[in-house]
Design a protein that fits this description.
Structural class: alpha/beta
Pfam families: 3HCDH, 3HCDH_N
EC number: 1.1.1.157
Radius of gyration: 19 Å
CATH architecture of the largest domain: 3-Layer(aba) Sandwich
Pathway: Lipid metabolism; butanoate metabolism
Number of helices: 11
CATH class of the largest domain: Alpha Beta
Largest sheet: 8 strands, mixed
Family: Belongs to the 3-hydroxyacyl-CoA dehydrogenase family.
Protein name: 3-hydroxybutyryl-CoA dehydrogenase
Number of domains: 2
Strand content: 5-15%
Bound molecules: 1,4-dihydronicotinamide adenine dinucleotide
């Protein structure tokens, strides 16, 4: 199946990055958000990143202009009626996501593939909110999307081979490396990454070391490019908490219990870089 027109839903940090790489790879892209301010911010962040790439000599001015000409902002989900592929990148919450998928199932043509960028929620359950579970799939990009090479492709119980092969081909057209993952809580990436981040938060909570020193141990001692607390701030502490809850509920194992300090920060609205404060303070 050929994919020409794509809608990305959610113009937050992931959605704007996904829209950018699709537009840079020649697809026609609509970037949708229900919040006008978030949509403006997402469009501006794409323009800023492209301009920075031009300044640094990574791309030509023409590529920036061409990329932006392929991008259309959208505040109306009904615009999805012209999309061959929809990628949802809204809040990590099953109820909200299934509502959107059920609406998309009614709006989009029969051939349209409905993908979710969910970090951890079961694709099979999202697919069950539609009448086309064979065309529902997980396409999990990494943050920041324009930089990170990996895409986890998650097959729901009923995802068809044709849908899988189409998404695998699209990932290749975006110059990403795809891995195939079965539908289990946290998939592979977050099943391994999030318990490490959660343990770093416990280490801080128990007063074992300062936040800076915890990050230094993992950076200088394990050669991670970024410490786990900084990484948590970049991912978003609300997203980290959702993912830990999905692992905890999904496996029923207390080793996945979210750290109380993580819950406290999220309750305070300290969501990390996107809200200006998490473990660290951002301007
Ligand atoms: P974000 O909070 O930066 O952005 C979410 C955006 O969705 C907001 O602009 C919000 O206005 C919009 N939105 C919410 N409900 C909507 C609806 N019904 N219709 C249209 N727009 C709606 O979130 P972020 O970090 O971009 O995460 C989005 C998804 O990507 C989540 O499922 C998350 O688990 C996943 N993800 C996040 C990663 C990260 O590092 N933050 C990495 C990989 C996946």
């Amino acid at each position: 199946m050929s994919i020409k027109s794509v809608m990305v839903i959610g113009a937050g940090q992931m959605g704007s990055g996904i829209a950018q790489v699709f537009a840079q790879s020649g697809f026609q892209v609509m970037l949708n958000d229900m919040n006008e301010e978030a949509l403006d911010k997402g469009m501006q962040s794409i323009e800023k990143l492209l301009s920075r790439n031009v300044d640094k000599g990574r791309i030509e001015e023409e590529e920036k202009t061409a990329t932006l000409s392929r991008l259309t902002p959208s505040l109306n989900l009904d615009d999805a009626e012209s999309a061959d592929l929809v990628i949802e990148a809204i809040v990590e919450n099953m109820e909200v996501k299934t509502k959107v998928f059920s609406r998309l199932d009614k709006i989009t043509p029969h051939h349209t593939i409905l993908a979710s960028n969910t970090s951890s929620l079961p694709i099979t359950e999202i697919a069950a909110a539609t009448e086309r579970p064979e065309k529902v799939i997980g396409m999990h990009f990494m943050n920041p999307v324009p930089v990170m090479k990996l895409v986890e492709i998650i097959r729901g119980l009923q995802t068809s081979d044709e849908t899988y092969e189409t998404i695998q081909r699209v990932a290749g057209e975006l110059q990403k490396t795809a891995v195939e993952v079965e539908d289990f809580p946290g998939f592979v990436s977050n099943r391994i990454l999030m318990p490490m981040i959660n343990e770093a938060i416990y280490t801080l909570y128990e007063g074992v070391a300062s936040k800076e020193d915890i990050d230094s141990v993992m950076k200088l001692g394990m050669n991670h490019p970024m410490g786990p607390l900084t990484l948590a701030d970049f991912i978003g502490l609300d997203t980290c908490l959702y993912i830990m809850e999905v692992l905890h509920d999904g496996f029923g194992d207390s080793k996945y219990r979210p750290c109380p300090l993580l819950r406290k920060y999220v309750k305070a609205g300290w969501l990390g870089k996107k809200s200006g404060r998490g473990f660290y303070v951002y301007e």
